[in-house]
Amino acid sequence: MRSDFDILDGHVHCFQRERWGDLLRTLRYTGARQFALLDTGNDGGDPQRQQLDNALRAKRELPDDVYVFGGLNFTVIRDRDRDRESDRDRDREPSGSDAGAATARDLRDQLQHLIDIGCDGLKLLVGKPDKRKAVGVPLDSEIFRPMLSLAEQTQFPVLWHVGDPPEFWSERTVPPWARQRGWWYDATHPTKAQLDAEIFGVFRRHPRLNLILPHFFFLSDRLDDAATLLETYPSFMLDLAPGVEMFHNFSARRDDARAFFLRFADRIIFGADFGMRCGWGLDRGMMIRRFLETDDVFDVPDDPAMTPDDRPPLRGIALPREALEQVYAKNFRRVVGDRPRPLRGEVPTEVSVR
Asked: Rounded to whole angstroms, what are the CA distances from 329 to 32, 35, 76, 275?
């Protein structure tokens, strides 16, 4: 692959501070000078407050290179429900509407705080099936309206993971690498149809969100639907962070995929999803680059979140340089910012925790 591209990785995690050096070396190996670190927030089941601290530390260390998408503390929703149950136990009338309004204000205030301290965007993982189950309210709940209205009004970027690959809803169809880790969903989780209905309710209510939908919004096997989405909502973007199923689906319809990328070259953002807790393979970013830059037929590289997988090899779509430049960096900078926002003042670790 050519080394003269300006590459910005728009989808990087920062779970492990002790692996920061490895992560930075991996990003540089892929060719990324700038990158966005994502804080997945706290849904109460697996708090990851260290992520935000790691991201802010990195931004202080490399202020010209590091964008930060902060997360929210969704345990305020769980605490609201706990308080309502406590009211019932005391034979008091549950203050549901008051509690709901207070929770909605809290989430909005958390977002405002992220904006005020110099974050570059908001990361939401609450649309992932296990996270949606943990939070316990629909994605189109009124509780989220003030927070999303603020994001829409300010055009503050939102990167929102919604859904997962359709095959993850059955132990029989989930790919081997995910089955080994128990990464699949049972009847206690919301269905993909339910999540789709909820998020499209959000889209109709907030059609002008500055929204990035990662993992191609899990529409890589439905390119016509992906095109309709982008046509309907001109401010929405898709990112290429694996799910490796995405690249298998593209390869299976290689000519259609190439035509889609050429048509929507200004709506797609490069991301490799480095930094996950399960680890990552050095070549996952180079896999995406090889797919975009060449017409090679090649195997998926070893990676704990991509292999083993019994699907056929990938085939690249050999995009022209102009399209590659848009996907690699220009699109992200257009919707997020030409350069990272400066941090403001002394930022405490517990930025979005109460």
From this structure: 9, 10, 36, 20
pLDDT digits (tens, 9 = 90+) for 319-330: 999 999 999 999
| 189-237 pLDDT per residue, tens | 999 999 999 999 999 999 999 999 999 999 999 999 999 999 999 999 9
Identify the residue whose tokens are 């070259």: 265
Specify which residues 32 forms β-bridges with.
7
Q: Euclidean distance between the first and final Cα of the chain, in Å?
A: 46
**Cα(347)–Cα(354) distance, integer angstroms:** 15
DSSP string, 197-249: HHHHHHHHH-TT--EEEGGGGG-TT-HHHHHHHHHH-TT-EEE----THHHHH
Q: How many Å apart are CA 282 and CA 301, to the nearest integer?
A: 9
H or E element at residue 325? helix 321-325
Q: How far is CA 10 from the centre of its chain?
A: 9
* DSSP code per residue over 24-73: HHHHHHHTEEEEEEE---B-SSS--HHHHHHHHHHHHHSTTTEEEEE--B
What's the rounded Cα separation, in Å, for the pair 210 and 190? 26
Q: Which domains does the chain have, with CATH numbers?
A: 7-335 (3.20.20.140)
DSSP run (H or E) holding 132: helix 129-135
